[in-house]
Design goal:
Elements lengths: L1 E5 L6 E5 L6 E5 L3 E4 L4 E5 L4 H11 L5 E5 L6 E4 L5 E9 L4 E3 L4 E4 L3 E7 L12 E16 L2 E6 L4 E4 L3 E5 L2 E7 L3 H6 L4 E7 L1 E6 L3 H9 L9
Antiparallel strand pairs: 1-2, 2-7, 3-6, 3-10, 4-7, 5-6, 8-12, 9-12, 9-15, 10-12, 11-12, 13-18, 14-17, 15-18, 16-17
């Protein structure tokens, strides 16, 4: 199968062209935009009820996912994330896992497995949440975010990322959630808490985050005044 990224980075959409019958793509619920009419779709709970419920409650993903199967060469499938933003493709090699923040998963080949992993109590204070989605296996994996996506290669010395902008990171990286500066910086700088990544790997960050948008829009919302 072949992939094409369309309308990046603001309104990203993925086009998949299947080269032979039987090729499949597993897509998050409600993410399909369009598809060839002869293509089949099966809705199921990958890994069974318990695994699907675990991903829903702990990883922020939908219980049901849709598996699209090509019936003939040349069929196409379009899918996109719900929020305005970007999509990234990572070819999983079966050796290095990928950890994603809640809601970042968009689609993958059936040979890529999803699970949740405890991020520690430190995750309670970060934008990644207390649980992370862990992807392992071989094949294409698509993840998304609100805003644009930017990849940073982390090496000796580490890297610091605002907690609300962490989208995904590769295995081999560890992080600690700390405050940026002292208490004065924590409460008055507008930066809050950060993830201090250490190790060797790659981290993907978002250029925007929904919480900041909500704070910005809130001041302009109409307010009814009682007489």
């Amino acid at each position: 199968m072949r992939y094409e990224m369309l309308d990046k980075p603001d309104f990203a959409m993925v086009k998949v062209t299947f080269d032979q019958p039987g090729e499949q793509m597993v897509v998050e619920s409600a993410a399909m935009v369009a598809r060839s009419s002869a293509m089949t779709m099966e809705t199921n709970m990958r890994g069974g009820l318990l695994a699907a419920a675990k991903r829903k409650m702990l990883g922020g993903e939908s219980i049901f996912q849709n598996t699209f199967t090509a019936t003939q060469p040349g069929e196409t499938l379009f899918f996109a994330p719900a929020p305005e933003g970007d999509v990234e493709l990572l070819e999983m090699n079966g050796q290095v896992p990928l950890f994603m923040s809640s809601g970042a998963f968009l689609a993958a080949a059936p040979t890529v497995n999803l699970d949740t992993q405890w991020g520690g109590t430190k995750g309670f204070f970060s934008g990644t949440g207390m649980f992370l989605l862990k992807a392992e296996g071989v094949g294409p994996l698509f993840f998304s975010c609100y805003g644009g996506l930017h990849a940073i290669d982390v090496g000796p010395g580490g890297y610091v990322v605002d907690t609300s902008h962490v989208v995904a990171f590769t295995g081999g990286l560890n992080y600690n959630v700390t405050k940026l500066g002292g208490l004065k910086s924590l409460f008055f700088s507008g930066e809050g808490l950060v993830c201090n990544f250490q190790g060797q790997g790659r981290v993907w960050i978002s250029t925007r985050n929904p919480a900041s948008l909500a704070t910005f829009v809130h001041q302009y919302r109409p307010v009814k005044r009682s007489n």
